[in-house]
Amino acid sequence: MSDTREIEIDQIDVPAGRRKVSPNWVAALADDIEAHRQRTPIEVIETGARFRLVSGAHRLAAQRLREAKTILAIVRAADAYASEAEIKLAEIAENMMRRELSVLDRAVDVAAWREIYEAAKGAVKRGGTRRVKSKSPVETLNLEAAAEAFAASFKEAASTALNLSAPTIYRYLQIASIDGAIRERIALHPMADNRSELVALATSPADLQAQMAALIVAGDAANVAHALAIIEAKPKPAPLSKWEKLSDGFSRLKQSDQERFFALHADAIELWLAKRRG
Q1: Which segments constitute the ParB-like N-terminal domain (predicted)?
Q2: How far is 177 from 183, CA to CA, in rounded Å?
Q3: Model pTM?
Q4: Domains of the chain, each with CATH number or no CATH
Q5: Which of 197-206, 233-242, 263-272 has the lowest average pLDDT?
Q6: Distance, CA of 74 to chain centre
C-alpha cells in the first residue's frame, strides 16, 4: 500500500551510506522548486511516527535548503520491502533505470528550451546572416549572441549543475541545427553521444550531411572526417557531350516544337535516313 502526500521534513531519516548529494544540483533544484513547485515526489517508508528515505535525496536536500517544512512524498507501508537489501536495491534501481540524455538529446532540448524562453522573454536580436564556420549550414541567427543571452538567463547554480555555459549552449545550438531526419537516423548510434563528432557533422556542408550520416550508421565510415573523405573521393559523373545535351533538351520539348525542329533540319534527317536504307 502507498499514498502520495505532504509529510514533515523533520520526520524523515536518511540512512547512512547514501551517495553524496551534489551542492550544485541541490541549489539548482531549489531554484526550480521555488519557481515551478516540486515536480516529482520523493519515496519514503513509514516507520511508526517517522519516515525512512528510499529515493529523492537531492529533492529532500533542496527543500531543506529552501527551509521548507514539508515535502511531497510517495509513502509506502513498512512491509513494502522485505529486507534492507530490497530497500537498497530500490534506491540503486531508481538511479540506474534513469535513461541519461545523449548529447544529441540535450542539444535538441536546449534549442527547444531557448525557443520557449525567447517566446516569453523576447528573441535575441539577429546579427544578420552569419556562418559559424566556413562550411557551416547554420545561417539563421547569430548563435553566439543567442547562446550568451540564453546562458545569462540561468542562475549560477543551475548553469553549473546543468553545464550550460555560453560556449556549451553555442555548441548545442550548432548540433540542434542538424536536419531532423538526420538526427532521427543517428539518435541511437554512439555518435549521438559524441559532441565533437556532432559539431563536425553540423558544420559540414548541408548537402552532404545525410550521406555522411548514412555512411557512419552503416559502419562504412568511422567518423565524420572519414565519411567526408569517402564522399569526396567518389568520381564525379562525366559531363554530357554536346549531342547528349541536345538529345536531353529535345526530349523535353512539346510535340509541336519537336516538329518545328524536324522541319528546320529536314535535309540532315533525310540524308541520315538515306544512309540507313543504304
Answers
A1: 5-96
A2: 9
A3: 0.59
A4: 2-96 (3.90.1530.10), 103-233 (no CATH), 242-277 (no CATH)
A5: 233-242
A6: 32
